[in-house]
Amino acid sequence: MIRAFALAIALFAAPLFAQSAVPPAPYAYTQLDDPALEAEATALMLTLRCLKCQSQSIADSDAPMAGDMRHQVRVRIQAGQSPDEIRAWLVERYGDYVSYQPEASATTWPLFAIPALLLAVVFLVLMRRLGRVRSDGGVAP
Amino acid sequence: MTSSSSNRIWIWVPLVLFVGIAALAAFMLTQPKDEFVKSQMIGKPLPEFALRAATEDRPGVTIEHFRDGKPKLLNVWASWCFPCIAEAPQLEELRANGAEIIGVAIRDRPADVATFLARHGNPYSRIGADDRSEIQLELGSSGVPETFVIDGQGIIRHQHIGDIRESDVSALLQQLRDAR
Description:
The complex is a heterodimer of chains A (141) and B (180). With 141 residues, chain A is mostly helical. Chain A contains five helices and no strands. The termini of chain A are far apart. Mean pLDDT of chain A is 85; it is low at 11-18. Chain B is built from six helices and seven strands, in the order ααβββαβαβαββα. At the A-B interface, helix 3 and helix 4 of A face helix 5 of B.
């Protein structure tokens, strides 16, 4: 009973500490009027990391800072910037970490190279084995 | 015969690889996670900006205030931020040692800023209000509090993430001297 009461108190109290008092930015929770631009903005927001709540995208997060980032994305999309430009603007400030869209770079190239390398090895092994089977007259080693 | 004995060795390679990767994963799970997102803006200039005053007590901030030739601290904080209370004595100590501290208050109301300063001290020469985290995003800052060392030409020289502890004070003063 006491535990349930404490939990209820904690659930009500915690958000009060976490939030600021200022109302959210205009485009934090308001969609753009043009559905095509809004779709572009949403697609971008789903691939940008919320910096305060690091396992969510800014589209998923209710953190005030994520709201401010959504505002930036929508305002910039409306001003005619491309999603790639906006992503680059954030990556320039926070590094690759802010983007969920993998990019090949000096640190990430092994992620792309290793699977290709493994496939090449598998292919070579298969070719050798199949070649051997054929030259042995159909008998597997 | 030689081919079958070399086959017998090769057969262990996948298992060894698997155990190696599993051991690496297990080890990394025991390591503390680095939750800090470091700014990539060190060595780059502050953007052009102008912020209104966050409270009646102190004037607002523009980029020009960082271009007067004197290195300064730019403290990103908020009245609703608990660690900001913890670092207040250290900011006061920095100010007493000659550091000029310009504050940027994130999503804050003038009345709340005034209450915080009355309660925890006011080490700031100016405080700008950043209602939509615009300057914070430009700085590559991802939370409050954070403190940046800005040189006299408005170039970002150093980022301190989190509240300033007693042990950080002398290092920050040194950073300010280095930024001359």
